[in-house]
Amino acid sequence: MPQADPERTALSPEGSFEGSFEELLERLEAIVERLERGELALEDALATFEEGVGLTRSLSERLGGAERRVEELLRDGVGLATRPLEAESD
Q1: Of 29, 46, 53, 87, which residue is the least packed, with the fewest Cβ within 10 Å?
Q2: Do residues 28 and 8 lie in contact, with contact meaning Cβ atoms separated by under 8 Å?
Q3: What is the dihedral of CA 46, 16, 31, 6, to 10 degrees?
Q4: What residues make up the domain containing 63?
Q5: What is the gyration radius of the CA atoms in the chain, in angstroms?
Q6: How high is the pLDDT of residue 11?
Q7: How far apart (Å, rounded) are the C-alpha atoms in residues 83 and 15?
Q8: CA neighbours within 13 Å on the CB side: how many for 51?
Q9: Taking CA 41 as the corner, what is the angle to CA 55 and CA 37, rounded to the nearest 5 degrees?
């Protein structure tokens, strides 16, 4: 049976992850590092992976909401139109 992870991210009663975007992103990065080390037992790795998938979905939803909010602000401002962000060149 998998051990409880004290660093595991708390879920709200609605099933979404609690914390700021930055805190959740930091937790996701820690999960990726743990999985990449390959030191977890199978059940622990699956539970950790499942948490990572949930965090990814939550972060994606938050980014989508922020994008919609920016688009709305630009649209309601002085008639500015949104445009796609250009990829940064290396």
Answers
A1: 87
A2: no
A3: -90
A4: 21-73
A5: 18
A6: 60
A7: 33
A8: 24
A9: 65
Q: Are 20 and 61 in contact (CB under 8 A)?
A: no
Q: Where are the alpha helices (DSSP H) in 6-41?
A: 21-37
> Is pLDDT at 22 greater than 90 in this prediction?
yes
Q: Is residue 53 part of a domain?
A: yes
The tokens describing 1, both together, are 């049976």
Look at residue 39 and tell me whether its pLDDT is greater than 60.
yes
Give the model's pLDDT for residue 17.
83
Distance from C-alpha of 35 to C-alpha of 42, rounded to nearest angstrom: 10
The full length of the chain comes to 90
Confidence of residue 72 (pLDDT cuts 50, 70, 90): confident
Taking the C-alpha atoms of residue 40 and residue 29, their distance in angstroms, rounded to an integer, is 16
